[in-house]
């Protein structure tokens, strides 16, 4: 039996709210007048605080008696409003009883971490209600003296509670970790695994209730008061859990309930996750769309890819709740430590500092809540209330300090000062130059974080608390007036340099790492450039920079320390908020980006010589996108605020924050085709000699890199002494096992597994194993057994847990009587509800296991299957021992098929025959061979360039390999390059694209924004050279274009030029053909370079010969068509007219809006005149409609006339 919080608090405090009874009991126990006085004083404190403590009572009981939605809101509001006051009271108690500081500190950190999460589920605050209820009991310690001892055992209150407090600290940390993992989970996963999450939550409710009862019991025992009299008001734990269940049900949205019903109707979670068709059907269900809504600004994560999202969801659903929590805990521990350190530093900063005012609890006005004495004096003199217009505030600051320095100078001129002036240092006089009208905006922004245009008392105190302890307020103001712009300008230059070196470094990256590096740069560069290119940079002043250097270095070091604690990995938004610290993101963005990019640059340097884990740069990019998510959110908030203030956002972003958001607000202009062609960016040649040497990979990488020796080490089972002494049932399965996973349709469904099972050192009834999967990820196996009480049947259950990003596998099976076969069922996740797959393990070598018959073969004809197995295994052993050519060729062909089919499966579904072939590849590969072929597969995946954001305008597929570009993008398939692309395919096409248009091809991924302009300019330069060469050999003389230069007749002195030949086949090339951009001769007259015929380029898809490389870019050289097509002429004329029509329609829509507004205003202000005005407006609209109709008729006639003209020009159709 336990009591609810309401009754517990009321009971425990009511025992102390009867002064006469309590005093008599104390007299009888102690007979000490001094003790009576002490206890009466304590009672007065308790009586005073009773109302405050009672406000911390759980709102759950009330919530369950009213409307569910309203209850949830009241619950969350109660938490936000009540916890800060409780924390303050607990801090006061901790000063009396320091031993509770560890629990109070953990509680404070957990609350801060929770408040930083923006998208909290309604269930998470419920845990903090219970956590708060538990901690509120400790307020009662205020009445107990720290050194006072109990009568019975002479122990202090610390002796009684210290162990419970330590357990409470651990409970709070574990609960906060679970809340963190839950908040990061996909909405679908929260819904479909809600029962396991709710079990976790209920477990913490029980734990916190238990701890609260332990606190109350010890406190009651200590003061000699029994609590049994309150039993009538106790609630059972079952009743409380029942309330929680009803509360959880009230939190479920209709979409979540519908999703759960659909999953149940389709066989449950395991059936849905194992059946791709069902999962896809649910994923595409429009009624569930709200559960798939992304965050407000996901531009940083790149374009929405439904297939990628579905794949991520499928993998996420396979991971059970326990695994999710365990994987999250390591990152959470780091965040917990950072938050704890930040809170400690904040408390040190908030301690009384020389020159700061001490705020009394009773104040006479808003100015008395201001800490800084100078601003307090200004606020008081100006008689401002809670807030003041930002411009007036800064101007008052300027005038105040100028007057102060004028008085200071007058005092120095007179022997005896005539007026009393606050002490100011003459060393700060230089700051007055920068605290002026021209620098009002940056000073206002330093105070006004919410950009409301008003400065509040809270904002003033926040600003002054943040200043360095050895700086004056004037020094701090000068930093924001002039120093911050200089410092941030310096960071932008450093960022530009790092990015330039990254792009220069790309050429030195190993092919296996290239795609991950390209993806990182494709996503990150333009987001960084949107900020750095827009920022209004200032020139450096060395003397001024020196005045701010101390703070700049300290702030950078703070960020670096936090980043190192977080391993430079932001797994969630709250992690980023903890690392960067308080204040708006624009105050931290450039030093934060500089430190992140510096770390990622060092990782890229490693990628020159070491093959990185595939997740390394993915995590790096994900960390950066979380930063830009926050930038996008800040931009959106500012834009909305400017609109509310009736200001033009475009103009405001040219003022605010030194224009940092200007390009972010107008990104279309930044990435327009015209801008990209003309853009020039900083180029820095990579020089490894000037970079840091001896970088420790372990220190900068978050994912391990295995050596070939580790991956391909031959596993040999060696029995240990512990194995000999193990439990008999465990000993039965110790040793080497090989086997496969399979299902009813395919055998096997994955690569061979190989296990060397040993007894667990800590428990002779447990067993374990470890090894590497085919993808190189290490895994650990752990398990045990159960014995059926009736049949005596032994069932073995074990799990295989992967180190990185792979789903836990749960297996359970039975050993056959002969002891050589262990078979059973398999599922993904810990404690699954069903096991839909099967496995079989044999005491065979991996070489022999390749030929073991499948269950279907054994069922069909077991003797024949076993005889076939014996023959194949013996023949393979002989061939392997002699290393025959046939055996080597067989292995090679099997590996090629494996890589080919796995690679194809990445992009297109396999046929039934191909699936069967792939299963045979799985079956014929040993684990060591599978790891080797997996490396080949990874190399192929990573080596084929993937062009970020680029899709073929002909076939619509994502461009991989070669990319052909004109004003459109095409893949390098001949059928796509030969297509005509109409204007309705792309909005930015003015005229259709024809195969005769100029185009160039790249076979390495170029950045779609940063490198496009350079590539385009080089291609056009190469095209001029290629055309000049073809003209000089007399093929296809030029058109009327440029008659003076290119079409000039040759003189007799012109030397003859040999026609160019294909670099591959040696045949003389004719137009159209390809000319190498990278091998071009910069001297246009020399006519050098590499030509390639269309046939060789199509056949070989890039090749290397001499100085020409397969990755070089090519430009298409073909005869120029001087006569545009009739259709192009029509489109060229129609496009401007369509633009005019669109503009008129837009104006018409604006007029309609204006009319609606006027109607509403007229209804209110003009009453009877409304009909007359409406008649006039309707007449105007009729006139506009008539004009639009005439324009449409004119366009129709014009289009028909052009069509007839085009038909006559083409002549009659051929028979």
Notes on the protein architecture:
Residues 1033-1059 are annotated as: Disordered. This is EF-hand domain-containing protein. With 1215 residues, this protein is an alpha+beta fold. Mean pLDDT is 76; it is low at 1-66, 225-235, 293-304, 352-363, 417-421, 1036-1053 and 1202-1215. The chain is globular. β8 and β9 form a beta hairpin. It has 7 domains: 51-185 and 194-252 and 321-351, no CATH class; 253-319, no CATH class; 373-414 and 424-681, no CATH class; 707-850, Beta Barrel (Lipocalin); 883-943, no CATH class; 945-1035 and 1058-1120, no CATH class; 1136-1171. The chain contains 45 helices and 18 strands.
Number of domains: 7
Structural class: alpha+beta
Rg over CA atoms, rounded to whole Å, is 38 Å
Q: Name the beta content range.
A: 5-15%
Organism: Lentinus brumalis
Protein name: EF-hand domain-containing protein
Region (Disordered): 1033-1059
SSE inventory with pairings:
Blueprint: H1 5-14, H2 19-30, H3 33-54, H4 60-63, H5 68-96, H6 101-115, H7 123-136, H8 157-184, H9 187-192, H10 194-222, H11 237-251, H12 254-265, H13 269-274, H14 276-283, H15 306-318, H16 321-350, H17 373-382, E1 387-389, H18 390-413, H19 440-447, E2 454-456, H20 457-465, H21 473-505, H22 511-532, H23 542-565, H24 573-580, H25 589-606, H26 614-644, H27 649-652, H28 662-665, H29 667-670, H30 673-678, H31 697-700, H32 708-711, H33 721-724, H34 728-731, E3 735-742, E4 753-760, E5 763-772, E6 778-787, E7 794-802, E8 809-815, E9 821-828, E10 837-842, H35 846-849, H36 855-860, H37 862-882, H38 885-905, H39 912-924, H40 927-943, E11 946-951, E12 958-960, E13 963-965, E14 969-971, H41 974-977, E15 1000-1002, H42 1012-1032, E16 1073-1076, E17 1091-1092, H43 1094-1100, E18 1114-1117, H44 1126-1165, H45 1170-1210
Helix pairs in contact: 1-3, 2-3, 5-6, 5-7, 6-7, 6-8, 6-16, 7-10, 8-10, 8-16, 10-11, 18-19, 19-21, 21-22, 21-23, 21-25, 22-26, 22-40, 23-25, 25-26, 38-39, 38-40, 44-45
